[in-house]
Give the backbone structure.
Amino acid sequence: MEFIKQLEVWFIVGSQHLYGEQALRQVNRHAEQITAYLNRQQPFIQIKLKAPATCAEDILALCQAANNTDRCAGIIAWMHTFSPAKMWIAGLSQLSKPLLQFHTQFNRNIPWNDIDMDYMNLHQTAHGDREFGFLAARLRKPRTIVVGHWQAAAVRQKLDRWMRVIAAIYDQKHLKVARFGDNMREVAVTEGDKVAAQITFGYSVNGYGVYQLADAVNQVKEEDIAALVKEYETDYQLVDSLRKNGAKRTALLDSARIELGLKAFLQQGGFNAFTDTFENLNGLKQLPGLPVQRLMAQGYGFGAEGDWKTAALVRALKVMSDGLGQGTSFMEDYTYDLDDNNEVVLGAHMLEVCPSIARDKPVLDIKPLGIGGKDDPPRLIFSAKAGPAINATIVDMGNRFRLIVADLNAIEKPQEMPHLPVGHAFWQLQPNFDVGTQAWILAGGAHHSVFSLAIDADMLQTFADYFGIEFIHINRRTTLAELKNQLRWNDAAYA
């Protein structure tokens, strides 16, 4: 995603003038070496070193500058020496960007034969960070803490994971979601307070008539359609009826026209997420199936039946997983295989499952839809990859938003399904089918979710912490008694 290349993370090193100018120069040299090293590792976001923070006025100015610099996605703070935390009160109180407390030190090992008081004064992260940590806790400041030597591979991985999350946070604050038509009639969980969402997350959600999308579709040029269909023929396995001179070729051309018109509308309006609904297709020949699948694969967020919360969350996980290759998709718990002690969930949707999760080259086919009253739409059919995965959903609880994440074991399809007309995934729930299902339902989890093979619950915990929303994690250690208590305590905490 191109916008990520423009972002930067500011590296602020805490110290004080107590130790003298020579010590401060050494602090800065060490910070320069760490910054250069980390940037050579090609982090998800480039790191920009700022001048050492040694007084309250400088710290306040740095935090205000970070707030007012759009390309600054977050701040890494490292206490090289002791940095009295009262100096940080004004700055941290105003800081609105994500914060990472980097608990590292320049030297990996103690210089046993040479250690003296000068060394002790300079290398004080062990207790300087505890001073900083107390203040952040006193201010109730959400933050991520990364512990370990700055050259350790595990530390670089933790920094990269945090950067992926803050890129998604940055994107949510700039996100525009387009809704074509309204929510599916009489459905509860896809509704919600769009004003509260904009206050909480920063993204805006606005509706557009399907006729406006149809106008964009009708403006698509024939040569562009031909070029896109050639791309289809390269990327997918087309069934005979969709090939040149095939009986359903016209439907494929119509689908390409919708894709081009939809993408043009989104690009012109600066939208990176969208919804539609099969109940409102005025002016379109088909419910967009293939177009939605392909746009998700390009990084757009999507929610079916007007589900704007899921559209925004799909986009967030698309940003977090950029370049990882494992795949993220809009998803729905569709049906079960209930073998005793081997229960399996089949996840799918009527059309809109992202091919980024596909195990093999997808088949491009056309099947009856049986809903919406329009022409049968082409769609990509595939099975998802196996591996550790999650389902995530955001629901509006009336006085707060709740992010629910369930750990899954995605598995290979148990058997061939020659008549299944959709992209799909199979998974087993943690800790087991009974508890995992009850836990999701008790927490109010939606039937729409974001399925990801690339992102885990820890990253989404960081996402939730920053926005101050409730977080529920269903995993191998979950018990229903503890979950019920957690939900009761959270109701009290958010009352």
About this structure: The chain has 16 helices and 19 strands.
